[in-house]
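[job 0417] fold request received: Luciferase-like domain-containing protein
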Amino acid sequence: MALATFVDRVKGLEATGVVDYAHLWDQLTSWWPPEMWNPQVTPLANALPDIDSFPDQFALGAVGAYATPDLGMCISSDAIRRGPAELMQTMLTISNLAGRRAPILQLGAGELKQCKPFGWKRSQGLSSLEDHFRYMEAFWNSDGPVTLKGNRWNFDNAWIGGSKGRRPRVWGLGGGPKIIDLTTTYADGFATIAPSVWTSADHAGEEISKLKQTLDSKGRDPEAFDFGLWPLLILHDEGREDLVEAAMSNPLIRWLAAVFGRINQSDWDKEGIEPLMPRDWHYAMKLLPVQWSAAEVEEVTAGIPRKTIEKCFFIGTPEKVAAELQAYVDAGVTWTMMADVLPFVMNAEEASDASRRAVEVCAILKGRDPASATLTIDGVGRTQPYANDRSAPGAIR
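[job 0417] inference complete; emitting structure tokens
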């Protein structure tokens, strides 16, 4: 996507009336080995020859916040590559530029591919996340400088001013007992992936119930807490099952199934399926895309059964997928981000239309006629729409 079209794109999402936030991924590199991104694998490579050149998502978030007063900005990042005070300063800037929706920062413990090649230590992820959460709480609960002994950062009369403005919402992102503990202690919400982590609506309901019990035990209001979902989608129009057939055999999609199909590879054992990667392999702690050879990629992607790939995504028309996601909403999910992976293996013209289907899912989840949520933007981009508005009629709740 040409950056000059970013504002037009987010304005198009805002105008649909059913998309509440644009989600921006703070990435330094993509999830695929670079040599996989070529015209022989995906026609989109003809229009987007480099899948690893990500712009600064915080800069885009500031532009988008100012340009679209009715569309919120959500940025997912890690706790390692920016200090707590610097990140708070950035989020306050975006918040003060924004319209009626406070920005959301989803913060995880980091990925090896974002850290090791650039001199950061992925092993500092959880301790850094705790420092971020503790600093943010101290900053908002203090009228003066912050003094705080942390794991990685120590604050000694740290002062970034008293003009705080509107508080951004900060969520924990990922999974695991430590992240859950930190998130339920300090954060405003929690987000994870489906079906990669929450494999079914019933599973999501069980985990949300546990989270609510933990929040309650810590004296926090579960109803003021958000439960977010990143569903991995393969959306297509009625009568275009041929697109699904092509996707099932495409190495890019098969790679995503291997890497993200189950975040904890050993979870495949619960379904009687041989894990697609070693049982102790976790993408956040193991994946370094640039180090994978073509032969290694072929070995991983070639033999995955179709039925296994189908368990890694929500596949179907907007109406079918919305019904499946509605079950998650009924189980307690308050926020859904439409992460459609099909555009990555389509030509530019088809890919540019993919956001329309994601918007239709948002419309259906909000109880709106999807035909009324017209998306009038062109081009291919990395911005994804999602629905969440507790105050609006037909909101996800």
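[job 0417] notes: Residues 74 and 104 are 5 Å apart (CA to CA). Residues 201-217 form the longest helix (17 residues).
[job 0417] exit 0
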